[in-house]
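ok so for the tutorial part 2 we go from a plain amino acid sequence to predicted C-alpha cells. step 1 is just haveing the sequence, like this:
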Amino acid sequence: MSLFSLADRVAVITGSTRGIGRAIAERMAEAGARVVVSSRKRDACEEVAAAIVAAHGPGRAIAIPANISSKDELRNLVDETTQKLGRIDVLVCNAASNPYYGPMSGLEDAAFRKILENNVLSNHWLIQFAAPQMLARGDGSIVIVSSIGGLRGSEVLGGYCISKAADLQLARNLALEYGPRGVRVNCIAPGLIRTDFARALWENPEARARREAATPLRRIGEPDEIAGAAVFLASAASSFMTGQTIVVDGGVTA
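step 2 — the prediction. this is what the C-alpha cells look like for a chain of 254 residues:
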C-alpha cells in the first residue's frame, strides 16, 4: 500500500465546499478516502459531494452541513458521520472566519469573540466530539488548518493572527495528550492562497504585486497546494509526526 494511501479511511473536512477545504476533500477522495463534505449550506455541501462521487465513484462522499459556531451542529456532524460511515479516521478543522480587517484598536468585542469562537473554540469542540472514538481504537489523525498569521504579527489581521496562533498551541497540547494512545494532531500554516476567504489580500493588483515580490517563489498559492500537505498528515507517510506545523507559504516566512 502506498505511504500516501487513504483507502478505507473516513475523513471529515469542515469548510469544504470551496477553497482550501474543497481541495482537501477532493484530494483525500482521490487518495481513497470516503469524505464528509461540511459547511453551513446544505445545497453547497451536496453539490461538492456529488462532484466527488462523479469523479471517484459511489459512496466516496456524503454531505453533512454544520455551522462551526453551533456546538450542537458540530456534535451532530460527528454523530451522523459515525452513524452513516461507521467511524472517523481523519478530522480536518479547516473552517474559520475573519469579520474584521484593520488595526487592533478598532476590533470590537463582538467581532473578536466571533474570531476566537469560530477559529479556536469550535475546533476544540469538534475535536472533543471526534477524538474519543479515535482514542478507543488507538488510531487517528487530526489536522488543524492554521495560518502563517499565527507565526507573526499583522497590522490589519491581528485578531485573526491571535486565533491562528492559538490553533498552533491547541495542536501541540492535544498531541501530548493523545500521542500515547496513537492519535496524532498537526497543523498546516498556509501563506496567501487564492481563495474567496483571502480575496481582500490578493484581489488588489498593487497589494498582490507587493506580496509576490516579497515571496521567494514570486507568486501566491493555490488551494490544491495545501491539499497535498493535508493528505500527507492524514496518511501513513506522516505516522511519526505529531504536534507540528507544516508551513506552506512560498517561502515568505523564510
